[in-house]
Structure formats: C-alpha cells, structure tokens
Amino acid sequence: MNAPRHFNPTARWLHWLMAAMIVAMLFIGVAMMASVSARPWLIDLHRPLGITILVLAVVRLRNRLRRPVPALPASLPRWQRAAATASHWLLYGLMLAMPLIGWAMLSAGGFPVQLADGVMLPPIAPRHPALYAVLRAAHGGLAYLLFATVLLHVAAALRHAWVLGDGVFASMARGGRRTPAD
C-alpha cells in the first residue's frame, strides 16, 4: 500500500486543535505557579482541559494506528527519520501520561477532579501524601519535557516548511490540496 501524501482530515483537525490546547495548557500551568490570585480559576480551567486532551489523545492515537500516514522524504538522513518517529511517539506518550499523572496526583492528594458543576471524576490513585508528592514532581518534570519536545517539533516543522520545502509541513497543514511545492 502506498503512503498518502497528506494526513487524513481527522488527523489534521485533531493535530491543530490539540496543538492549541497543549500550548494553552503549558501557559496555564506556568500561570498557576506564578499567580496566587488567579490560581483557583486557572486550576478550574486546567483540570477539564487536561481530561479533554486525554480523551482527544486516545481518539488521535486510535486514528493514527488505523490510518496510513505520509512517509518522510527519502532525502532525510536515517537519524532524522528516527528522531522524527521517536519524537512523535514521545508526544503521544506525553499527551496520555500528563493528564493521567495529573489525575492520579489529585486523587493521591484527596482533591476532586471536577469537570463541570456536579461532574466529578472518580479517584484513580489511593489517597497518600508521599504518592501525591512523587506524582506532583513527575507532572512538573514531564511538563518541562513536553515544552521542550513541542519547541523541537515546531522548529522541525518550520525547517521543513521554510528551509527544506519538502512537503512534510504541507502534509499536515494543507491536506488534499496539491501545489507544485508539495
């Protein structure tokens, strides 16, 4: 089976929606740590957004495993193709792990995960202060890893778009439209 030239519409839609959500989540996380007065309403935003990212990540991963994806250009060195593949799977892992660890952290701390008025998620970890501390450190550390991975992903995408012009960026950005640059 030949690889398509572009990601399918569901993959493209989820990619751009989740990119905006993840960038927003990173800024919300920083703001939560920097502002005492805004912290309560930022937390109220952070929790449901994290669960939404988790649900969309599952949908996105399912789509990714069921649908063929464009091949990377043969002109890319093997190490760059391997790095691209590894970084994509790292992003998927982080999109799943970050919300789950956050949910478990809150559960271990005895804090409810409220999505909306009257809509609460059940705890997924036992209430335990030491476990809360470990999960909080893991959540924070993985947030830095996510931030770094997102920066590298954006830098690579822009390199493909502006320097190489090899169609890699277009495969996610434009979908089915074909131009001479594709």
From TrEMBL:
All copies of domain Cytochrome b561 bacterial/Ni-hydrogenase, residue ranges: 6-175
Parts of the chain that traverse the membrane: 12-35, 41-59, 89-111, 131-152
GO cellular component: plasma membrane
Subcellular localization, as worded in the UniProt entry: Cell membrane
Protein name: Cytochrome B561
Organism (species): Lysobacter arseniciresistens ZS79
GO MF entries: electron transfer activity; heme binding; metal ion binding
GO biological process terms on file: respiratory electron transport chain
